[in-house]
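Letters spell out the chain; backbone shape is given numerically. Both lines appear below:
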Amino acid sequence: MALKSNHRINGDRLWDMLMEMAKIGPGVAGGNNRQTLTDEDGEGRHLFQKWCEAEGLTMGVDQMGNMFARREGTDPEALPVYVGSHLDTQPTGGKYDGVLGVLGGLEIIRTLNDLDIKTKHPIVVTNWTNEEGTRFAPAMLASGVFAGVLEQDWAYDIEDAGGKKFGDELERIGWRGEEEVGARKMHAFFELHIEQGPILEIENKEIGVVTHGQGLSWTQFTITGKDSHTGSTPMPMRKNAGLGMARILQKVDEIAWSHKPNAVGAAGHIDVFPNSRNVIPGKVVFTVDFRSPELAVIEDMEQRLAVVAKEICDEMGLGLEIEKVGGFDPVEFDEGCVSAVRNAAERLGYSHMNIISGAGHDACWVNKVAPTSMIMCPCVDGLSHNEAEDISKEWATAGADVLFHAVVETAEIIG
């Protein structure tokens, strides 16, 4: 038995869940501030758990706080199909980034229950802890531990800006489980997400079939010069760390453009010391973010920037320290899972196109331990990580419909 094209999720019900979750940790401008391991994160988790238990799901929680809501299959030996994303947000985040993927997974379960459809494989709806990485860097922390690429003890010791440790805060809000992280085995994993970019909207496509994820490189640059008065220090005697940074950032842009159209580069995090109006900066710390779907391109951008940054600082008499502080290799998603997504979009009659994810997602780490793919829906003007982030109910419904068909067919209908 297979799903038919008239088998659809309840878009109104999904939208109502999104709006209800958005009431927890409201932002100041219409979005959300539900940062990981805050009281608001704990409240959102409890609401998700309540909804899951109402659908007959059993909840498991591992030692990183990852939540796994399971609907049983008919074969106790069959590995589960996992589906989900994250409930935590940026400090000035939107209502849909991550949340759509978690609640879209729950809507799959509600629809299966409505239709009394059973599957051979269990289906598990997942909320990954600390995908955003805003409060506790790096991003995708708990899925990284799950996939074995990050150490749990190291993750527990990460501190936020106030000196609070991840492990302590996880314990404080009551979401440190006993289950060993990464012990679960998966038949497959699917993640629905808003695009966080403008391509689907520009191309007038309802569905993005995600074939690859861009690799990411974060490199921290520390430039040291000499604090001095902006008015009384002669130009030839200045050691302006801010000017050195400006010249390096110009090179970041040039290097990224040299690998157009898919490579990107910029500095998002910048600290200037002493950051006073009448003091020439004696120190700057900034992080360069390079991304590309090709590992060789990322490596080329890193190497070229390191060389030119040293040349600039040597010429200006500035000190320079370079440290790689994060990143991951480009991802190629599983061909079978990608085909399941594409076939679902075609069966349902949704316009679609192949797309490369420009952002990192939990699926990028899970792909290391299980067959994985992603589905994307458009977002207005490609805007995300912003309280003005917006999608339409129709886009959310289309994405969840495709997710429903891809997940359920992978889980194999019985009957």
In short: The CA atoms of residues 232 and 278 lie 10 Å apart. The first helix runs from residue 11 to 22. The radius of gyration is 23 Å.
